Amino acid sequence: MRVPSGALRALVVLAALAALPPSAGADCTWLLFEDTQFYRADDPVAALYVDDALARMSAAAPLAVVVHPGDVADNGAQVDRYARWSAELGRLDGVIPYVVVQGNHDGQTGPHPNFLAQFGVATGRYDAHLVDSFDDANYGIRFACDGVQFLMVGLQWRPADFPGILPWADGLIASTQLPTVVVTHDYGHNPLGYFTAGQAVFDQLVRSNDWIIAVLSGHQYELTRVVQNDLGNDVLEMMANYQWCDPNGLGPFCVGESNAGANCAVDADCPGSTCNTTPGYGQGFTRPIQVHIDPLAQQIDFSWTTPSVLQATRPELTYVCTPAMACYGYCPRGTFNTAGATALGVSSRLRACNDGVDNDGDGWIDFDPAGGDPGCASRSASTESPECQDGLDNDLDGRIDFDGGLSAGVATPTAPDLQCGSPTVDRERAPRRCGLGFEFVLLIPLLLWAERRLGRRSGGRAAALRP
């Protein structure tokens, strides 16, 4: 049966969408590390971060990406700490994409050379997923959440202070046209607004670029909210920094800072801190973010639990301990980083050719140069079934699509439609031509009548003027 384009074709697509199971979509986990500068190079907690990531590979919502928001070491001179974290994160190479950005402890006036030696773009560690880079510290990678493609842009500490970084990021996001997650160390906000660095990133990048759906950061203590960009679309903002925090309100928090027998220096800025000279323990925290992409509702559902606590005992180490709230007021005893959930409306940023769903029911899903839906010109295309790959004879000329309807599953393929040069063309009809053609024939009688009438009037006036 030949079905014309327009309302009937829309009904066919809607019927295919309605036939999808309720769970249609994509599920995955993003894993956010905290600031880790307090852990020694020989502290066993470092390995537990990556162990936690690898353990999530086989979860119901498998791990899609790992994010370290900066402050890998306590200062740029700590070569051994960078080397340790480089080795641990290297266990993810070829397994899962990850992003590591520079924090203020990794260089106050720009990335420290020791940080870049282990985590710069030039190391090649991001190459498998790299899309583009501005320099050695600012770059974008691509990752997938159960088939749906995302862009993640890693930016150095306070990128607005360095000319060119934010315009580059804005251009990369606009040209890639993928739902985008921005990672930068200092973006955090308070209930009334942003801190200075975060305000600059929001004003110069986030608010005007509609492809950005989330910003992940560290540095400040944990707060999460959904804000709206200039187009009124949702953006998730989440930061994770649990250093010095007591996760359960039950006792002191300790970090590995000194060897047994060495001088254990308490934090002068932290009244009540002590040196634990008995065998100590280290703690680390990871924040798993569960992500469910619902293409029918055009939204992404995020949920998160209280951060996972990692612990390791090391007899030869002593630890600096501090009571909860002794140093910072952002981490109150007993109210540590509660669980939460939110639904993020993604509307224009989740397209039919990048939603993990076979929207037109032809057996092909999304844009993929290696074998995706032929009707998808790019991941930002809003339909999987343009007229030249929808299985319909839209112009009623007896020909279907670019391939006779074969790729759309037509039972009896026809000859290809002559107007379909490729499957992504959204018009089977020949284009309208300018000028008068057949319509001019219909005007001839009217023109002849007008000419005769004009002639009679002219003749009468001429006779009246003769002497």
Features:
467 residues, alpha/beta, Purple Acid Phosphatase, chain A, domain 2, seven-stranded mixed β-sheet, 7 helices, 19 strands, 20% helix, disordered N terminus, disordered C terminus
Estimate the mean pLDDT confidence. 77
Radius of gyration: 31 Å
- What's the helix count? 7
Count of DSSP E strands?
Answer: 19
- Give a short account of the largest sheet: 7 strands, mixed
| Category by helix and strand content | alpha/beta
- Termini gap: 77 Å
Could you tell me the CATH topology label.
Answer: Purple Acid Phosphatase, chain A, domain 2
- Structural domain tally: 1
> How would you classify the quaternary structure?
single chain
What does this structure look like?
The chain is an alpha/beta fold. The protein has one domain (21-349): Purple Acid Phosphatase, chain A, domain 2, CATH 3.60.21. Helices cover 20% and strands 24% of the residues. It contains 7 helices and 19 strands. It has helices at residues 7-18, 45-55, 79-89, 113-119, 165-176, 196-206, 438-465; strands spanning 26-33, 63-68, 98-100, 130-133, 139-145, 148-155, 180-184, 189-190, 193-194, 212-217, 224-228, 234-239, 253-259, 274-276, 280-294, 299-304, 308-314, 317-322, 340-345. Strands 1, 2, 3, 15, 16, 17 and 19 form a 7-stranded mixed sheet that branches. Strand 5 (139-145) and strand 6 form a beta hairpin. Helix 2 (45-55) packs parallel to helix 3 and helix 3 (79-89) runs parallel beside helix 4. The longest helix has 28 residues, at 438-465. The protein is elongated.
